Amino acid sequence: METKEFNELVNMTVEELEDWLKLEESQDSGWGKADGSGESVGHESGRKIIEILKKNPKKDPSNYDEDDLGHMRKVVSYNKRHLAQEEKAKQNTESKSFKSLKNWGHDPLKT
């Protein structure tokens, strides 16, 4: 996987993603984690994306570790799949698709 794809698809800044994840509506979409915490998989992904962005603000490919790269692959796969399927995410900001994409670091309104 190219880290370039991750950095293109994740079009939200750390601050934008942090602010989004604080909102109740960010919790309203996606699959619940199996641990019973009530957090969705996408919401947890958003927190991991923030860690990756903070750890490597210059986006230097040599500064990512295997854990980062593994999560980055998931993010690229998720975003590509959902962007291909979900044109409505751009049209309906109340849709689960829109909210879910934002949890995964992609703001459809920015593209």
Total strands: the figure is 0
**SSE order:** HHHHHH
- Please report which band the strand proportion falls in: under 5%, 5-15%, 15-25%, 25-35%, 35-45% or over 45%: under 5%
What would you call the shape? globular
* Largest beta-sheet characterization: none
Low-confidence stretches: none
Percent of residues in helices comes to 55-70%
Task: Work out the radius of gyration.
Answer: 13 Å
Number of helices: 6
Average predicted local confidence, pLDDT: 87
The end-to-end distance, rounded to whole angstroms, is 22 Å
Explain what you see.
There is one protein chain. The chain has helices at residues 3-9, 14-22, 41-55, 66-85, 88-91, 96-103. α2 packs antiparallel against α3 (41-55). It is mostly helical. It is built from six helices and no strands. The model has no long low-confidence stretch (mean pLDDT 87). 57% of the residues lie in helices and 0% in strands.
Q: How is the secondary structure organized here?
A:
Blueprint: H1 3-9, H2 14-22, H3 41-55, H4 66-85, H5 88-91, H6 96-103
In short:
The chain has 111 residues and is mainly alpha-helical.
Keywords:
111 residues; mainly alpha
